[in-house]
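ok here's Quinoprotein amine dehydrogenase:
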Amino acid sequence: MLRPRSVYLLPLLLAALLTGCGGGGGGGGADPSTPAVSPALSFNPDTVRASINAGTSTTLNVIATVARPADLANAAGVLASVVDNNGVLLPNAQLIRDSDTQYHAVLQTAPSLAAGSYSGSFTVRLCRDSACATQLPGSPMQLPYSLQVVAVGQLAFSATPAVALGATAHIGAAAPAAINVAISSEGRGWTASSGAAWLKPGAASGSGNATLSVAFDATGLAVGDYSTTLTISASDGQSATLPATLSVQPSGLVTAGSVTFNAINGAPVPNQVIALDTDDKSSASWSALANGAWLRVSPTSGTTPSTAVLTVDPTIGTLASASYSSSVTLSAIGQASRYLPVTLNLSPATLSASLNSITLGGAYGRDFSASPSLALSLNTVTNAWPWSFGALPTWADASVLGGVVNQAASNVSFSALPANAPVGVSSTLVTATARVNGDRVAAPVLLTINKDQHKLLPSETGVALSATPSWTRLTRTLTVRDNYGSFGGMSASSSQGWLVAGVSGNKLTLTADPTTLGANTLSIATVALTPLDPDAGAPEPIRVALWKGTRTPQANASTTLSYANVATDPIRPYAYLHNGGAYIDIYNLYNGQKTGTITGLGASLGDMATSSNGDYLYLLNLSSHALVTIDLNTQTVLSQIAVDADQATRLKVIRPNGVEMVVLSNGAAYLAANNARVNLPLSGGGTLAASGDGTRLLQQAENAAVVAITTLSVDYAALNGGTLYPARIPAASHANTGTLGQDIAVSPDGTRIYTANSAPKLCSILNPVDLGVLGYLAAGDGTPNNIELGSDGRIYCGAAVKAAASDVWMYDASGKLLNQYKLVGSGKLLLPRQLAVSGDGLLLIGITDDGVATIVPVGP
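and the structure:
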């Protein structure tokens, strides 16, 4: 009688990589703490992790699998949401239904997060009504997060696996192949630690850029799915945490009465060997017949004692993952046939993507040069299977839309087609699908494009020109840049015949001819730019004013009224002055005459600032705690918004990315277009200064024993309805030399910082990178308390000094002394921060401690 004999494990098992889920161990009984109703959704990844540069926002993707699809039978009535109670996300988190069994969450981190680590949990809800009074069974759920925000200027650190960090191991078989992790840690040391014994980094530490081999060891593990993390930490405090999974599968085996094959569908399936003999050990001829299309036996006949090899082939019949039963009929002459049951257990293969989200357009939606890539892998070892992407959004393209994939990486890069994308943030979940025998296995990837408004940005939006018998400033050249960095040409037109707008490359030259204009008149023109690139716009018109006067100022002129605060117009030859009371007087700097008064402003007034193009004057009304906007074309109040301000609050107008906003020294800021409030990481108050493009904002503490300077990077993009991206720059935010800070200014190109402090008795030139001293500007024996830059590049260092012959020193852009001036006679002191330069750069006005405002001609 024929019988299978010898129970033994089969050799030659091949390991495959499989991404799974679990809690660090497989099998086991029920957790006694499990609630009566298990969570309605399970999340992949189970913890949201990201490393983010300060002042930027990152789009994150989480796949949520529905535990009980029947609960969502009426999905139209289910309102899904993600709740963030800690402000780490922008308020636009979405939980989007993909199917009856899947949702995906689109999360964007808040760009206002300061450098540091953030951890906690988001609350995910499935509600039956808008008020969420009733939730589905298993809702709400907690989605943990661990975010690291990297300071501006800090070297980037990353750890990137070649493929998704996952493996499949069969008990008793060889270990799965190790996976390499590329570590980018220039100039720093690093350490690697695993959260479980089965995940083994090849090195515990290292330095610089390196490749770390990570192995999987299933020794001693029971059948089941395991998950853990690999944490790689840099010596500067940054870290990368990588999720890792291991699926431990049973081996195929032969028992006394059956044969079982356990395999990943699509992976090589090891053969099984059966031993054949008779009970009495006599020799007998036998034959074998496989009773299933997917089952084969070889040889099909022989003489005992002998062995036969059983082979399965899931490609025959294109089997889907499931359990299949068949048998082998064993026959011998003169013997009854016997049937050997054969079972084939096929588990579905796993298609994995090294990244679950890809963002195009960069953090601000203006950089489309990068082509980020991901690696697809399939845990079928060397067997390759066809894969393809579903439909891509019209704004994205892929280097390949399909191919074949196995455990070795199949790389795909993505590129943006920004002309096809709307302004803002657009996200689409695309799916890579592999066809493995009768299975379809998928890897979803969230594609996001950030697209800012494409525009041309002039270096200045307000230009002052002038013509008098002895002085003329009739031409000005501006630089125009494309905020995408892809300048495609432009044309320019002037609204007035006396002004010609000439274009050469990205240079705009404005030339005025005052011949036809009347004497002692102010003429204003508007210059419009037109990009040649149809995708771009030019939303900022350039305002140009020309003063034609019959008198060239030769001597100082002082006011008879007393004042406490002064601001000059960027295009008109006007100064705006108030004495802290209810009105603002307007003076023509060329003739020294008061030309008007703006009234109805409140009993107590504070700091003032003008808009970049001279259209508006912003004023703090301290009596009503309001920020007042005055239309300088009509000299009337346009709006008032409530603010928290006092006499020490300073104002500064900036225009990052061409979006004008008014900044208060307490960190509040208001968009000029709609008065919407945004916030900047400023505290403690102090004088404000900014680069010409508004991307660098500085604050210097006033009258403190230690001169502390804070530097922010600032940007604004038309993403998510308009988003401010501020970040503190640590290397340029610290205590500086000197004491009793008074005033600060920044060169238009942002390459120099100028400060006026009570000590040393010099104005200082600082490096914006680290606040290192680059040089000094002499200020006599006075106490520097004003620093101003003219539109022509000249620098003015003003000091409080009673007896000296000068209290203002004028330098060229290189720091060479050109001239020095005295506002008033001996015995009067220049007030801190009360020196201003006319828009054309030819006149100064300053207020001394007796309240007198003095106009000083400095000329070309």
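+1. Residues 1-35 have pLDDT under 50 and may be disordered.
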